[in-house]
Prior knowledge:
alpha/beta, Rossmann fold, seven-stranded parallel beta sheet, globular
Amino acid sequence: MPFSDLGISPALAHAMVLQGFVLPTPVQAQTVPVALGGRDVLACAQTGSGKTAAYALVLLAQLAARPAHKPRQAAALVVVPTRELATQVGDTLRTLAQHAGQAARVTVLFGGVSINPQLMGLRGGTDIVVATPGRLLDVIDHRALSLGAVQTLVLDEADRLLDLGFAAELDRIRSLLPQRHQSLLYSATFAPAVRAMAQASLRSPVEVNVVAEEGEQPDIAQRAIQVDTNQRTPLLRHLMAEHGWSRVLVFVATKYAAEMVADKLRRAGLLAEPFHAQLSQGKRTQVLMDFKASAIQVVVATDVAARGIDIGDLPVVVNFDLPRSATDYTHRIGRTARAGASGLAVSFVSADMEAHLRLIEKRNRISIAREQVAGFVPTATAPVATLAGGIKGHRPSKKDKLRAAGLLPPLV
Ligand code: AMP
């Protein structure tokens, strides 16, 4: 299906081609026409599937079809969970509009920076607002923006918005919208909380699921290397040297670990920077820009970088610490293999984290072979009691108990 079959203007279709895109991705093909038909959409779209461009095309096409949209009151609102995603979505909208020769005023609002320039920026009015929930409500409380003319609401990464505890803010935002508006909800998973929110706020949505389809999964090779906790930094350096990895995103559990690991790598002569929520917005933007420009080889990040960040050509993601949840695992490894490229995700597994990785494998219905690397063979092995089930924080299931009693084969 060519872009022109999506129901968008020739100018917008051409704008996609100008960016080097050949055909619509599945999420674009399946959501753009129905959204332009006025229906609410509930889309389960994998990270890197092209969902941002999907709703950007819808919003710009709708805007172009509203010549009477004056004075410039926000006609569309995109709510996103993080500042980085807000910036990225704003950039996508502006670039598309520019390539299409369309005048569209896009305002990006996020916290962690002074509110005043954002309030000033709204003085001339706006067409599309992209915002994180807290700052959006602050701006509204300052009476710098009204949602009274919003016709289309996009909730991007809805699962993340809910994970981050934004449910109350979303309720308030929705209460400020006109009664009749269209909603487009994108989420990487249809977790029960997302379904509940969709049920409460969408009107008989068209449901689109592009995740489960065979052959459309990103091409990510997954490896798990057993290693002692204190050998992880040397192992990372060894792998980088051995495989010639020029750009690696390393995930750790805490901001302290991000600082510490980046520091150790720097002292070993690598260009490494930490990335976490405690850094200033300016610093975070700079790190991402330097990473994209290859001025940094390694970014050591907390899960703040796991969702929605598009780093372009990123061949390798390393789980230095395993993620807390199976969903976070999916988001982290989804930073590689973007837009059809292939990628590699390596997880370091110390003996005490073996059971946790098994839980992630079980939840994601995957099985990753354990490997050891010469020179880094772990001294500790996984405690037997933990392997039999009873993962910390989770009660053993019936199957875990049967497994422990030897009545079921062990998980592999
Ligand atoms: P997402 O995070 O799901 O918005 O995916 C974004 C990635 O997909 C970016 O790298 C885009 O440049 C890329 N992308 C968007 N639309 C297309 C398309 N039609 N064909 C190929 N890549 C695309």
